[in-house]
Amino acid sequence: MGNEIVAFARARARVAVRRAAVPAAFAVVGALFVLFAVAGLFAALFFWLEPALGPISACLIVAAVALLLAIIAFLPLAFRRKRAPPPPADAALPQFILLLARSAPSLSPKHLVATAALLAVALLFSARGQKK
């Protein structure tokens, strides 16, 4: 029974890590490319303005453009967005609970308390996704 519980927990952890890590890695790579592109654009703007306006005025204009772009970038954070729908119900949870219930008669009192706590946590996580 212990091996099955460990296998179940590992499978759930792998799915959760993969679900979070892959988009995060793509976001980091994309953010680096955007950062380099924006830095190049600011340098081009400075060198375009500097001969006509001087270095101080060109720096101030580039800083004002950067500030304006930062305000525009943070503007969506000021408004609430609709929450993402909860993930679909996992069919493995009822099987996990059934496995715990079948193994309960053969457990010592200490293991029985740990099993009950684990069952309560599993039910709490499954009920948390159903709230509106």
The proportion of residues forming helix, as a percent range, comes to over 70%
Structural class of the helix and strand makeup? mainly alpha
Strand content: under 5%
Q: What's the number of helices?
A: 4
Overall body shape: rod-shaped
Into how many domains do the coordinates divide? Answer: 2
Number of strands: 0
> What does the radius of gyration come to?
27 Å
Query: What is the average of the pLDDT values?
Result: 79
Largest sheet: none
What low-confidence regions span 5 or more consecutive residues with pLDDT below 50?
A: none
Write up this protein.
It is a single chain. With 132 residues, this protein is mainly α. It folds into 2 domains: 1-81, no CATH class; 89-132. The protein contains 4 helices and no strands. Helix 1 (2-53) packs antiparallel against helix 2 (55-74). The mean pLDDT is 79.
Write the layout of secondary structure elements.
Elements: H1 2-53, H2 55-74, H3 92-103, H4 109-128
Jot down its keywords.
mainly alpha; rod-shaped
Produce a short descriptive summary:
The protein is an all-alpha fold and about 130 residues long. The protein is built from 4 helices and no strands. Helix 1 packs antiparallel against helix 2.
